[in-house]
Specification:
32% helix, alpha/beta, 4-stranded antiparallel beta sheet, homotetramer, 20% strand, elongated, 14 strands
Chain lengths: 333, 333, 333, 333
């Protein structure tokens, strides 16, 4: 950590700062320039409160040199994390493809998607049963009945399942679900993160639309600090000024997160861009950038009014896309 | 709602869409142009799922004409909402000034801030006792002991208190707290919003850093739809590319939210910009733009290393600022 | 175009608006709802000033239905534009790879990059000779001498060349340059665009960091409206809150621009992200998303202090990357 | 400047870097930590190329400590710059109010605005005569005839005038214009900035929608480095995800720019938000935040279809607003 002092700092305040830092077991190396004095802080600065130091009268700015995350940091854990669920590995040599229904609405819809998923050889089946919906007047989900349907589909098709948890109090309901999704709006719901950190459930953590890479990694750090190492990161678009797409997929997130962390990284193109015609090119880009897999929404009942959402692809698009993604992965190997 | 069709839409699909809309009690008025056909949808479109319609093959785009929020909408409730707590009114003729400690750390700190607040005549005293902290390694708060201290300070100084709730399960702890803050990271924690909607506690709802005005109002709508009308909106900065300040205060939020909604609007300058020297000019701007009040963090123990955060002002700054804000309010009346 | 009227619009003003629109040869179709009246405008609305209409007392909002761009619009020109320069095609079946020096500094540097480019089989050689530099104290470029060196390199290596023009007055200097780049900071320098629109020079138009897709296409429209159809669009990153990378590459720009327009689309990964280690994954993502090619900066003298910029890759990285990009293109065909 | 080295940097490369820096008259102070070595660079680092250093193999990151701007920097020129034009001062004790027509369309329009300006006691009259227009099909301005009308209005009403210059080649036409506006799209048109830097014309430099404070100040630095000290900064909104307003006014720009620089700072609310009803509250906020003045568009012919733009206020609003702004300024003094 670097502390940049104002010109002519008052000496007693400077000494008090240095003394206080040393009680925190931080060693201070000053660099005195003509106009500016800089303090280099050496030691475990991850617990030093930058805001606190920058609030001092004598301090102009504080800059962090080391990342504040540890357990998720590739520097300290160079090997890729590979998560095993049944016969499947996430973060290993194979692509992970998750096919989902969006909001789960009926047995017919779920089973149609599951059948398409089975045919295309995808790894996981997703359905949302508790929302989240931005309007209180929208359909709020099948709830417990939806969880039951997911488990029935797993039984029938032999594909492990994933669903979004909204609140720590729902944990018992998700006991048999294979992967628990934490949605982008809950990425900094620390009560939920702390509760999940105490389990060993695999968690798919979606990036909030205004989260920096560091914010996302700090939320993952909450999970790992609690003892749960089964964490998957998921890029799903950030808020920018461009409104042609629902949000802007940040494809650089893939190689950057893989550099900074050892955790697997997936991409959800449909959530990011909100229209089916863009899902294949973005999914291809994600794999070409090094993603461990993608999430794709699939129509349960294509072509019917009221049967899906703007981002869902048809079963035949899913099949073609899955093939192409596997070929891309092979070329990159 | 406007539905823009693709060129030469297939007629059977078009008829099926129109029939389906009419079962939703929506009347459809088509406008046929040379290149483009547009459907005008008339009726209660707030429950129509835009995504669903825009996913149809024959649809190019869907645009909403009416706002999706109702209970918070000024069109349907033209009079300002005024919330009474003890002798104080929020959203009425007087400015509401909330003085806070940031993270509550000790009785000394809280009582020093409370004394400064009392002297300056501010309306509410705030202290955070459960976080939120972006790092799991940061101090996580005084918890129940903090709640107790807030109530003691209220007793001693006669100032009502506000604190941030993180989770629906904490509701019993906040029973005696006057205003419950929902932080920006929880603005779309729908489990929490639904639980608060069923109470009559006054809620200060902070805008998420990537929330549009509509997003914020839809979260407020969750509270009002549940039956709770005691809601205060709070602008606290949005995420932009400018990094000189922690986030960018969106001062237009004040007049826009006052136009769109009848709810009181406060501004938290310190949270937005993260440095004490900018708090007075931004607080002044907020009041000049029509805000019903501001939130200001105050040093409990100015000048000591480790005693505060970068955004906290001194007690004497608070006194001068409060005077100036009241003068500005008088000029604008 | 859709005009949404306020409740109970004054009738004389409404009639005056309709009459005025009809003098512009626009037909008006009203849809009268319970709370809201909507006017559907049919005809050539690309010349109607939205701002003007939305300023009227009786108007609540104006929404555009048709795109305001015509010559660049794929709807009116469904076939891809393919630009031929010597033996090379841009926008056709082969990838276009441009290898560049960044700021051109010396003959040695340029010739080292040109040699690497030749070996890797890239299509064009780029060097900047007039800046742009954000600081007046930075090196401002080799200017005319740089243009001369580029032409010498073309002669020696047989690779056509590209360089950035800053101002219409420089046009004579660029007479023999194969492609003229308009940098992102000049994307809305309309004096420059108008001057280039009157030539038949191939123009590489880079997206400004705050330009929407529509803004970029409207700037291209200036060129085509002037008569110049040899225009290449180039995505180079947009400004977002994420600061780990210099800007955020918007990979969706590739499929969206290809859908909206018939012009070729390139991507400049290095400019966007500002670090060499991210150039290969982003370039791969660009091609996988359907880009017609990429721009890559190459070190003239790797490993020497002062010899390059943070985003330049080594010659051997260029060779490996070019091979991989061609393989990806083949898989996608 | 701080250079953060990678772990275990190769010693010969490190020595070569230090030697090279010392030839640039930069002294290097290393701080050696357990995991990390940091170099503190002391001397005139404003000419050191950060990108060049960060491209080295042994370097992890480079952080600037000193601002790269000098002539515009308040640290080196603590006193406010006050610009005198006729009897008027910009940046002094009085507010500067500029009333404008937007796009100048006719003598009647200009003279109506000039009369309103005269009555309200505003300082300057603005009219745009060369665009800029984002569409090549929009009206491109009155050009030379517009310049002539502005000079006639100045003669008639005794109010100095301001207009937007698009290109260095237009300088002769602007010889008698009092203030030359550089629009936000040209903020980094360095050819134009260099040309204006060689004159002594007063320049109103508008912030680009994606420019950081530093970017804006570096563009101003181009003007001052050329010798022209008569520069006014103008905030006019940045691009964010919020689309309810045309752009987002960044009110913090006012106090931050006043802290960082000695130049006067104006705000253009209408350009930022694009709707007249928001102009008064934002203008009030600007003055309350410490702005030296505001720019306000005024209707030349209110209420007529085709007579103005969405952001123009009526003459009577201008009068009321001017009074209120002067009262606010008095309260703040």
């Amino acid at each position: 950590m670097i502390v940049i002092l104002k010109e002519n700092p008052e000496e007693s305040q400077l000494n008090s700062l240095i003394a206080w830092l040393e009680t925190q077991r931080i060693h201070v190396h000053p660099t005195v320039g003509a106009n500016q004095t800089i303090l280099g802080l050496v030691g475990d600065t991850s617990r030093v409160d930058m805001d606190m130091i920058s609030s001092l009268d004598i301090v102009e700015a504080v800059k962090r040199v080391q990342e504040p995350f540890k357990n998720v940091n590739r520097k300290f854990h160079p090997d890729d994390t590979v998560i095993r669920i049944g016969d499947t590995e996430i973060g290993g040599k194979e692509l992970t493809i998750i096919a989902g229904t969006g909001m789960l609405e009926s047995r017919e819809q779920l089973f149609a998607v599951a059948e398409a998923a089975k045919k295309s050889g995808v790894s996981f089946l997703r359905g949302s049963v508790f929302g989240p919906r931005s309007s209180p007047y929208s359909y709020q989900g099948m709830r417990v009945e939806g969880i039951r349907l997911l488990l029935e589909a797993r039984e029938t098709f032999g594909i492990p399942v994933i669903s979004e948890i909204m609140d720590a109090s729902q944990l018992p309901l998700f006991e048999d679900i294979d992967i628990l999704q934490v949605g982008s709006r809950n990425m900094q719901n620390y009560s939920l993160l702390k509760a999940l950190g105490k389990t060993d459930k695999t968690v798919l953590l979606k990036r909030n639309m205004s989260a920096t890479y560091e914010d996302l990694l700090m939320s993952a750090e909450y999970l790992l600090a609690g003892g749960n190492r089964n964490v998957i990161l998921c890029e799903r678009g950030i808020r920018t000024f461009e409104t042609h797409t629902r949000s802007t997929i940040d494809i650089s997130a893939v190689p950057v997160l893989k550099q900074l962390s050892h955790l697997p990284v997936l991409v959800d193109p449909g959530d990011a861009v909100g229209r089916a015609s863009l899902v294949p090119p973005i999914a291809q880009a994600a794999v070409a950038a090094g993603a461990d897999g993608v999430v794709v929404q699939v129509h349960g009942d294509a072509g019917q009014a009221g049967s899906g959402s703007a981002q869902a692809v048809t079963p035949s698009t899913l099949t073609g896309l899955t093939e192409k993604l596997n070929k891309l992965k092979a070329v990159l190997a």
